[in-house]
Design brief:
The complex is a heterodimer of chains A (749) and B (206). With 749 residues, chain A is α/β, with parallel strands linked by helices. Chain A is built from 21 helices and 31 strands. Chain A is elongated and about 95 Å long. Chain B has 12 helices and no strands. With 206 residues, chain B is mostly helical. Classes of the chains: A alpha/beta (749), B mainly alpha (206).
């Protein structure tokens, strides 16, 4: 919290060539007269031990509480310029000015103006900063709740226990093991990846049950999940009807998958005798127990055909549109069940594309060596019965073919058990609240399939991305869901085989542990893990519009009994989407608020119309766009010196007031740079950039009302690698604005 | 008397893949093909033959015995080894192609008059007879394979090249009379006969 007397100081670095091309005295003057800094110091090498010592001494002896460091990008020298006891703002003179403004005396004037503006902005920002105190709680649970006792869940529980954490494992059925209990063998986990291996489920179940750190609830479901990371209050409903309560720090959801209903595939013989799915074949192999595999009618199988992609990769919209990933490997494994027992059994696998990721290629080769026949073809018809037949188009020989078989195995896909789809839930609840009887019944049914039964404002389960699989930032943070502290593992996250599921489980468990530890320290979860700030709302100004509660990508905000937003700080990821959403601007962070950015916007010196120096505001996402801009500097690309860049936590945190303020003050244009949105989103906060685009799509009318062209505000999707592209985009936009002519708002600001 | 082909058909019944594995040089590799098509894309003869190696392997697995053995595709292989170098599964494709061609020939199923087959046969016969190839007689045999008139025409067309070779000392016209042989031709004949006997026994062609 703030010391009684704030003392503001500006430190200007003249190293890295800054002093050669900038008039440092001019910057000092700006910091003094306009920035009103109490202490202003210049150092030729601010980030070295001597420079840092100078700042530390001022903090210790001179009572400096707020620093504006005018040197390099906030992404550079972060360690040297970390002063945990004071608030720090960074003015980016190196990557942001000297490295990107064209060289030569012709550009001295605009370069100096740009640098002075950044000093103004830094001084303006630091005045609004408050050192975050963190929301450290007295007691915080680090216990890990694992939902689901299959291979993923058991592996997760074991991994957490091995790491020294208490675990609560909730399993719906009467035994641990999940789908693995139905299996005869698994695909090989280790070299030489040649033969199917025992599943190991029984041993793992015994290990988990005997582990004193793991408390197993069988025949139990999660009746309610309340709270936040560090303080999840879990109600566990047991078969007896009794409810147990557990306090947990983080959650791993490993609720697994169901097999696709084979009877939905009548054209492939689904439902006919001697046509089974892969689960059915596992049952036959288990019954055979290493001996000859027999059909349901007791006949020994002498020939078997595996049909890949049965009811999968279907673009007609009838069946699963996706590839379940494991089924090629599983069919290979099952074909070797036959070949290992009797090499004379004819085993054919009809595949379209054989997909065996990882070391599966070795397993494939091993099966070929054992004599399994692989035929590239597309199966059109399967007939079951006493003598089965499979009709397919051979895609290499380009001809129709029919082969007989004693048994046909359909490689159907995985259907995730991820719980309730939230849009469906929201619509159903709204209808039920309006008295719709059918909707009320549906609501009850949905509550039954819910896995976590969260009491969150935004619905009872974690959000799904596509095809019912739990959302995950599959490129950067695969286990992250859109509910902080809850991590998804195994086939409910994406289709996968057992080995991948166990790896997934360990990964998700590590993230869960991290979340519980961060919560105990009062810190945010990834990607702002160091951040001790959290959002607060001036409730007296709140209009109860609920935008923040709806738009929060992480479901962090509930409603209190008076229908005001109720922040669960531990669930918050500090993206600021709530702040961007708030129409009355009552939400803020100590170190990031409408004011910290707004004052920077206002601090910029906007030249008059006749000076022919346009001003363009760039609001750049700190995760991708801002690094890309830094990268342009590192590559010594040049872009217009008329832009002023302000990093934002996420485009979702951009409050439209900043844009209207900027344009009202005579800026000629605003560039918004965020991450890719949509299905293949790159946004670190999942929905932030999408929210921003949605909100900004409606700003056109406001601009028209101000008498401005809608082109004066542009949005861009920028990836972290777009250094060269971003420089080009800036120059193009500046050229476009020059053509449009100066903003009519100039001089009224 | 049953032919070698009839014997093979009876022995392997429908399982052509097994037959290839047992009788064709490097035939046990056929099952390892993963149908990527890199061989088909690498072959310089790609546009000219009917069945790429990829297809030949698929046809073997599909039991298309007659079609494979009567195909002229594998006879076109020039042994450039492109496919073999590029095959991700490291199949000795070139060797398999020659193995299949040889097997088809032994069964009497190979396409009659296929030029590569003719030249291979003449080459082999010359080598077998003298213990080395008599280039003059081998060339003339090639020219005259389609009859005397065509042979004269072929020889006249090539006379410039022939005279050049004679002038350069690369071709001795006197070879036409006897031609030199290796030291122990009968030893060579015995050795080849023994080798063939062993191999035929192994392949079930004896």
């Amino acid at each position: 919290m703030n010391a009684p007397a704030n003392k503001f100081a500006a430190y200007i670095c003249s190293g890295c060539g800054l002093g050669d091309v900038l008039k440092i005295a001019g910057l000092e003057k700006v910091a003094k007269t306009e920035g009103k800094m109490a202490v202003i110091k210049t150092h030729p090498f601010l980030c070295n031990a001597e420079g840092v010592k100078m700042i530390q001494d001022d903090i210790a002896n001179d009572g400096v509480t707020h620093l504006c460091i005018a040197a390099c990008s906030r992404r550079a020298k972060a360690e040297a310029f970390t002063f945990p006891t004071v608030a720090v703002a960074r003015a980016n003179l190196r990557e942001g000015v000297t490295w990107i403004v064209a060289e030569g005396a012709d550009h001295d004037e605009v370069r100096q103006e740009m640098a002075e503006d950044y000093v103004r902005m830094g001084c303006a920002e630091v005045k609004k900063l408050i050192l975050p105190g963190g929301n450290k709680k007295e007691s915080s649970s680090k216990k890990i709740l694992v939902v689901g006792g299959g291979m993923s869940g058991m592996t997760a529980a074991q991994a957490a226990a091995d790491a020294g954490y208490e675990v609560v494992l909730v399993e719906k059925t009467g035994a641990l093991g999940g789908f693995a209990n139905q299996m005869w063998k698994r695909m090989p986990f280790n070299a030489p990846h040649a033969d199917a291996q025992p599943t190991g489920a029984t041993e793992l179940a015994a290990q988990v049950s005997a582990n004193p750190k793991i408390k197993v609830y069988l025949n139990s479901t999660v009746a309610e999940t309340a709270g936040a990371p560090g303080r999840f209050a879990i109600k566990i409903a047991q078969e007896s009807g009794s409810i147990s309560e557990e306090l947990c720090g983080a959650i791993v959801q490993a609720s697994g998958f169901s097999t696709y209903d084979i009877t939905k595939l009548p054209e492939l013989g689904g439902g006919q005798p001697n046509v089974v799915d892969q689960a059915g074949l596992e049952a036959l192999a288990k019954a055979a127990n290493g001996g000859p595999i027999k059909r349901a009618d007791g006949k020994e199988v002498k020939s078997v055909v595996f049909v890949q992609c049965a009811g999968q990769r279907d673009d007609s919209g009838t069946h699963l549109p996706y590839c379940s990933g494991h089924c090629c490997g599983t069919s290979i494994k099952q074909a070797t069940y036959f070949k290992d027992q009797n090499p004379d059994i004819d085993t054919a696998i009809i595949f379209d594309d054989l997909r065996v990721p990882g070391m599966g290629e070795d397993f494939y080769r091993s099966a070929q060596t054992k004599g399994v026949t692989f035929t590239k073809g597309k199966t059109s018809k399967v007939t079951g019965g006493e003598s089965c037949s499979v009709t397919f188009k051979d895609l290499i020989l380009d001809e129709e073919n029919t082969i007989p078989a004693d048994l046909v195995v359909l490689a159907t896909g995985q259907v995730p058990n991820a719980g309730v789809e939230l849009d469906d839930w929201t619509a159903t609840v709204a209808a039920a609240d309006n008295g719709d009887e059918a909707a009320k019944e549906k609501k009850t049914a949905l509550q039954k399939i819910s896995v976590l039964n969260m009491n969150y404002r935004q619905g009872p389960d974690i959000p799904q991305l596509k095809y019912g699989f739990a959302d995950s930032h599959f490129i950067c943070f695969p286990y992250e869901t859109r509910r902080t502290g809850i991590y998804a593992a195994g086939p409910m996250r994406r289709p996968m085989d057992m080995h991948q599921a166990t790896e997934d489980a360990v990964g998700a468990t590590m993230k869960a542990i991290q979340a519980a530890e961060n919560a105990a320290l009062g810190r945010a979860a990834h990607p702002r893990a160091w951040d001790l700030s959290f959002p607060t709302a001036r409730l007296e100004g709140c209009t109860q519009c609920k935008r923040c509660t709806v738009e929060c990508p992480f479901g962090a905000i509930d409603e209190d009994e008076r229908r005001f937003p109720l922040f669960n700080e531990e669930r918050c990821r500090r993206c600021g989407t709530c702040m961007g959403a708030c129409p009355v601007r009552v939400i803020s962070f100590e170190n990031y608020s409408c004011d910290t950015v707004g004052m920077q916007v206002k601090a910029v010196n906007v030249p008059d119309e006749d000076e022919e120096k346009p001003r363009i505001l760039i609001l750049a996402c700190e995760n991708d766009a801002y690094p890309a801009l830094d990268m342009a500097g590192m590559q010594r690309l040049t872009y217009s010196a008329f832009v002023r860049v302000i990093p934002v936590r996420c485009l979702g945190s951009v409050n439209t007031i900043w844009i209207t303020d900027a344009l009202g003050a005579g800026y000629d244009g605003v560039m918004m740079m965020g991450c890719q949105k949509g299905e293949n989103y790159q946004c670190h906060f999942v929905k932030g950039s999408e929210m921003a685009y949605y909100r900004l799509s409606k700003i056109g009318d406001t601009l028209k009302g101000m008498g401005l062209e809608p082109e004066r505000m542009q949005t861009y999707e920028i990836a972290i690698t777009d250094g060269a592209r971003v420089a080009g985009l800036i120059n193009e936009y500046v050229a476009q604005l020059v053509e449009m002519g100066p903003s009519p708002m100039k001089g009224f600001g | 008397m049953t032919t070698a082909n009839e014997t093979a058909v009876a022995k392997y019944r429908n399982n052509f893949l097994k037959e290839v594995e047992a009788t064709v040089e490097e035939g046990h590799w056929v099952k390892m093909c993963m149908q990527c098509g890199v061989c088909a894309g690498s072959c310089p003869f790609g546009p000219h033959w009917e069945h790429s190696p990829q297809k030949i392997f698929m046809m073997i697995r599909a039991g298309k015995r007659e079609e494979v053995l009567k195909s002229d595709s594998m006879w076109m292989c020039t042994s450039c080894y492109n496919c073999m170098v590029r095959c991700p599964r490291e199949l000795p494709i070139t060797h398999i192609m020659h193995g299949l061609a040889n097997y088809a020939y032994r069964l009497g199923l190979s396409p009659k008059g296929q030029p590569n087959q003719v030249i291979a046969k003449l080459f082999w016969e010359s080598a077998l007879k003298y213990g080395r190839v008599n280039e003059l007689k081998f060339s003339l045999a090639m020219y005259f394979r389609d009859g005397f008139v065509q042979g004269v025409k072929n020889a006249l067309a090539m006379q410039g090249v022939g005279l050049g070779l004679v002038k350069a000392g690369r071709l001795n016209p006197m070879e036409i009379i006897s031609g030199h042989t290796c030291k122990d031709t009968s030893g060579i004949h015995k050795m080849i006969a023994k080798a063939r006997e062993i191999e035929d026994r192994r392949r079930g062609l004896a």
